[in-house]
């Protein structure tokens, strides 16, 4: 009976309910887009560290886990390797540069990441070959560089960095292409470590260092169940270092937590607006049909039947609106350029959709209460 009443009313007033479903669809688009932007910005900030083939990351002590401030001398690498439980290590250097093109293509800011060939930190290759040595001009590029600037294996690229007060240009040959590996919002170029040491921005051109340094050291452990024990062992045996897992290092990226909390707050307010809008609509809808509810109760309909009918109606309209909004969001994402950091991750997408489906019944609780409190005689105007 309750299901029949719900479907019957929606069908008789399909224009009104369709328009309200479109309002729910717009709320759905807003929530999904904000969620997609949050995930996209997060990925643009953390993608390389997230995909890094390491269990632990080692930083200089007292630098607040800052990759730019951390300095690990090459002399410490052997000390780290000798710690019990360490399987392999890979020094990592981080800096920024700009790709320039002689044929008029737009310049592209990139992250220059120095890696040791064959060691942790070198990304998996999708096309071409991996690095063969720590010297030379052969590099691996991020898949986004390949797609955004039409760079292919075997191409020669030019990277500009600042040496002292001068601009310096370096020609590099593309040896391989990895998957997306953005870091600090820029696609990445993976450079042999000795070459990275030469081309990275420096305060004085050609400035000599006492020893080679890295910003971070990626560490693989022999036993995945002993990660925490190995971490404590390294910190106790190697001086002036701080060792953390990847998630801790990611959360320490400047602005990362603030950015994510801001976008999460926006998404939460969008859901709250959805609850209020749905609640307001169905409350008005219920008030308009108080006489009809009174008739139903007068002929024997129970409060349970009325309540179920209202809830089913809310679920129908909300589900239809969410499906429309989800389809429109997915369709629009196909035409959004790669430069917009929008990621519709299936896991987060389903979480957002389930949350949107839940706000319908939540927003309609007031309507259910109003419907069950209707007195038949009063609704029909038969009491004084």
Report on this model:
By secondary structure, this protein is α+β, with helices and mostly antiparallel strands. It is 49% helix and 20% strand. The protein has two domains: 167 residues, no CATH class; 189 residues, no CATH class. The strands form two sheets. Strands 3-4-9-6-8-7 form a six-stranded mixed β-barrel. A two-stranded antiparallel sheet has the order 2-10. A hairpin with a 7-residue loop joins β3 and β4. The longest helix is centred in the first third of the chain and has 38 residues. The chain is elongated and about 95 Å long. The protein starts with a helix and ends in a 5-residue tail after the last helix.
Largest sheet: 6 strands, mixed, barrel
Order of helices and strands: HHEEHEEEEHEEEHEEHEHHHHHHH
How many helix segments?
A: 13
Beta percentage is: 15-25%
Count of domain modules: 2
Q: How would you sum up the global shape?
A: elongated
What structural category characterises the helix and strand content?
alpha+beta
Radius of gyration: 30 Å
Number of strands: 12
Mean of all residue-level pLDDT scores = 84
Residue runs with pLDDT of under 50 for 5 or more positions: none
**Helix amount, in percent?**
40-55%
What is the strand arrangement across the widest sheet? 3-4-9-6-8-7
Give a short summary of the structure:
The chain contains 13 helices and twelve strands. With 384 residues, it is of the alpha+beta class.
Which keywords apply here?
elongated, 12 strands, alpha+beta, 49% helix, single chain, 384 residues, two-stranded antiparallel ribbon, 2 domains, 13 helices
